[in-house]
Structures are given as structure tokens and as C-alpha cells.
Design brief:
Blueprint (H helix, E strand, L loop, with lengths): L1 H18 L4 H11 L1 H21 L5 E16 L4 E19 L3 H68 L4 H36 L25 H11 L1 H22 L4 E15 L9 H7 L2 E9 L7 H67 L5 H35 L8
Antiparallel strand pairs: 1-2, 2-3, 3-4
Length: 438
């Protein structure tokens, strides 16, 4: 009995999970947490954070230990006027600290901090790109659902006409050809519904693949009804551009790359300056001669009495190194030019994208308005055709043509509506408005 109860619970849980429907915000949030490209960018952020941590520690001294063991064979020792065999060992610790290096430690820390900011912006850039794709695929699901609804409505009318045609045929008022035509219209509309469902499944599959879900079969999205009576959001192009330049990650990333390139140039110039280091070592040694006749102290006594402390300061400065410092500076300046050029290209791309989005919003809204007006006239025409058919003034062929014209007009209006909504979301994106479906 317990096993049966457990099975029912598991099946119920699976059914509830299968019935879970995702909002567009949940899709974007899931992509932000689970998309492999975003995860890779986040790992790069962690690497940049470690680089900054390492740069922050560059001012600390280095400490190392050493242990040496040597066996020497000599051809002559003045004490015994003969060859000798010698064993020696030494051990200790040594440390070095950077006293002056032309400011490279500070510059490396600043560059690492800039690179960390750039890595975070790169992650946001990828997320923004995926968010736009999610919105596009999500709206495709809603569009195909509405197209299916239109096809289902058309099928209902076709079934009603078929029922009327059968009654008229049985009464002998219409020919067999008209009945067959009515049957063919029903079959055609059933196929349209099947095709519409396939498009729904395909758009859900595409969205699931974008989210990189392990299993797309139970994936579904919320039922969002977007009214046909939608207005146009009014934006000032110059204001949107101002916001986009200040907020778009691609532009911000290009700015950070300029700063990083400038710091790299400053770091390259520090290698023309002298280096001052402080040194300290503490060690001892032991020697053992295997030849008789050479005095040797005890092992522990030598270690105790041979302790040496060494404190020193060293200065090094470049004289000539095959022009590598000069060339490195020149390469850094070229990288600065590349970064500046990239920044200008990113701004130009944002300008084109915003202007394109602004144009597409206005043109797609005009197209939607025209399509909505076409539906209005198609509905009037269909109403007139329906009354004419019921009155026997037109045949089934002419009536079906009017009905199909209405379905086409409604489908075109839906496509124009969702095209406009997507274009509006793109413009909202550049205007700093989060992607959502209200």
C-alpha cells in the first residue's frame, strides 16, 4: 500500500512539474543562472578577481628556504699537501622585498581592478544578448498560439457550413460537388490547426534549446494574452541614444578596455626605470673532510657557530636589452589605438542599432495599424458574405473565399502585432526598460 501511495505522489509531482509554465522573466532569470556561455564568463570573472588579489599582494616580501648538500673532490689542500674529499651542507631562509620599481605595483593593481570590472561587464553583455533572444522566441510561442486560435475559429465555421451543406444536400437543394467542397474545407482547416500546433511546439523547442534545458518535452510558457488594441510608446531618439551610450554593456566594456590599455602602457614604461630591492638571508653550514690530518669540528657545533645574517640592498637599471622595452611601449600604444577604435565602433553600432530600432518600431506600428484596418474591412466583407450565403445569393465557394480572406487578414494582423511588440521591446532595451510582458 505504501508503494502504491509513493507511486501516486511521484506521478502527481511529475504531472505538476510538467504543467509548470514559465514567465518571460523566469526564462531570462534561468538563462542568467544556467547558460553555459554566461557561466564561462562568470568563471573569467573569478580569474580576474584572483588576478586582482595577486596584484594586491605584490608589495609583500618573498620568503624562501634553501638546503644544499655537496660532495667535493680536490686535487690539493695546503694543510696536508695532498688531495682531499669534502662533504658540506648549508641551509637557511632568504627574503626579498621590492623597495622601488617605478610604481609598477600600484599600476598592476589598478589594471587588475579595471580588468575585473571589464569581465563583469562582459557577463552582462552576454546576458543582454540572450535576453533579447528569449523575448523573440517567447513572443514566437504566443504568436503561434494566437494563429492556432484563428485556425480553430475558422474550423468551427467550416464545420457549421459542412453541417448546413449536408442538410441542403439531403434536401436536394445543392449538388454533391458543393458538399464535397465543404468537406474539403473542414479537412483543410484541420490541417491548418495541426500545422499551427507544430509551429507552437517548434517555437517552444527553440526557446528550450536557447535556455539549454536538458529535456524540452515538459517545457511550456505562460498563457499571455496581448490585446490587439495596443498603442505606440513615444520615445525621443536623442534621449534613447544618451541612455544607450551610458548603459549599454558593449560601450562600457570598450571604455574599460581603453583604461586597461592605458595602464598597460604605463606599466611598460616602468621597465625603463631602475629597480631597488632589499635582501635578507639567514643561514649556516657544515663541512666534513674525510682525509685524516684535517681538523674538523662536530656537526652541531659547526651549524651553531657558522650562522650568518646577510642584509643588503640591490639596485638594477636597464642599459640595453635589444630594444625590447621600447618595442613593448610601442606595442602598448598600438593596443591603446585599437581600444579607442573599438570604442568608436561600439558607439557607432549602438547608434545604428538604436536608429534601426526606432525606425522599426514606427514602421512596424504603421504596418500593424494597416493590418488592423484590413481586418476591420475583411470582417465587414465576411459578414456581408455570410448573410448573402444564408440568403442564397452566393455559393459556398464565394463564401469560403471571403472566410479565408478574413483568416489571412487576422493572421497577418497577428504577425504585425507581435513583430511590433518585439521591436518595441528592443527599443525598450536600449532605453533602459527591463524586458517584460505586461
Amino acid at each position: 500500500m505504501k508503494k502504491i501511495f509513493l507511486s501516486i505522489v511521484l506521478l502527481s509531482s511529475g504531472f505538476l512539474f510538467a504543467q509548470e509554465k514559465w514567465s518571460i522573466e523566469e526564462c531570462i532569470s534561468y538563462a542568467a543562472k544556467n547558460n553555459l556561455t554566461i557561466q564561462n564568463n562568470q568563471l573569467n570573472e573569478q580569474l580576474s578577481a584572483k588576478n586582482l588579489e595577486q596584484a594586491n599582494n605584490n608589495w609583500l616580501p618573498t620568503v624562501s628556504g634553501y638546503l644544499d648538500n655537496n660532495f667535493s673532490i680536490g686535487s690539493y689542500n695546503p694543510l696536508i699537501e695532498d688531495g682531499y674529499y669534502q662533504f658540506s651542507n648549508s641551509f637557511g631562509v632568504q627574503s626579498q622585498v621590492n623597495l622601488y620599481s617605478g610604481g609598477i605595483v600600484k599600476l598592476q593593481k589598478e589594471k587588475a581592478s579595471i580588468d575585473l570590472d571589464a569581465a563583469a561587464i562582459q557577463t552582462k553583455t552576454t546576458l543582454n544578448d540572450i535576453s533579447i533572444q528569449v523575448a523573440n522566441y517567447y513572443l514566437a510561442v504566443l504568436l503561434n498560439r494566437e494563429l492556432k486560435t484563428v485556425a480553430e475559429g475558422n474550423l468551427d465555421i467550416a464545420k457549421q457550413l459542412l453541417d448546413q451543406a449536408r442538410k441542403k444536400f439531403n434536401a436536394g437543394t445543392i449538388a454533391k460537388a458543393e458538399l464535397v467542397q465543404a468537406e474539403a474545407e473542414v479537412a483543410s482547416n484541420i490541417k491548418n490547426i495541426t500545422d499551427a500546433q507544430i509551429e507552437i511546439d517548434r517555437s517552444l523547442f527553440n526557446l528550450a534549446m536557447l535556455l539549454q534545458l536538458q529535456d524540452y518535452r515538459d517545457f511550456n510558457v505562460e498563457e499571455v494574452s496581448l490585446p490587439d488594441q495596443i498603442g505606440k510608446e513615444l520615445y525621443d531618439l536623442d534621449e534613447v541614444l544618451k541612455i544607450a551610450y551610458a548603459s549599454q554593456p558593449a560601450v562600457l566594456l570598450a571604455e574599460k578596455n581603453i583604461e586597461s590599455a592605458q595602464k598597460a602602457t604605463e606599466i611598460s614604461k616602468t621597465y625603463l626605470k631602475p629597480r631597488v630591492t632589499g635582501n635578507y638571508s639567514l643561514g649556516t653550514n657544515y663541512m666534513d673532510y674525510f682525509n685524516k690530518g684535517l681538523n674538523q669540528d662536530a656537526w652541531l657545533r659547526q651549524w651553531r657557530e657558522n650562522i650568518v645574517n646577510v642584509i643588503g640592498v640591490g639596485v638594477s637599471f636597464p642599459i640595453w636589452n635589444q630594444y625590447s622595452n621600447k618595442i613593448n611601449i610601442q606595442k602598448s600604444l598600438i593596443n591603446e589605438d585599437i581600444a579607442n577604435n573599438t570604442y568608436l565602433r561600439e558607439k557607432q553600432q549602438v547608434l545604428q542599432n538604436v536608429q534601426s530600432a526606432f525606425f522599426e518600431v514606427n514602421s512596424s506600428y504603421a504596418s500593424f495599424e494597416a493590418a488592423r484596418e484590413a481586418v476591420r474591412y475583411a470582417e465587414i466583407s465576411f459578414d456581408f458574405a455570410q448573410k448573402s450565403y444564408q440568403a442564397g445569393k452566393i455559393n459556398l465557394y464565394d463564401f469560403n473565399r471571403s472566410r479565408n480572406d478574413l483568416m489571412i487578414a487576422r493572421s497577418q494582423m497577428l504577425q504585425a502585432k507581435y513583430n511590433y511588440i518585439f521591436k518595441q521591446k528592443v527599443l525598450d532595451f536600449y532605453a533602459g526598460v527591463p524586458i517584460r510582458l505586461d
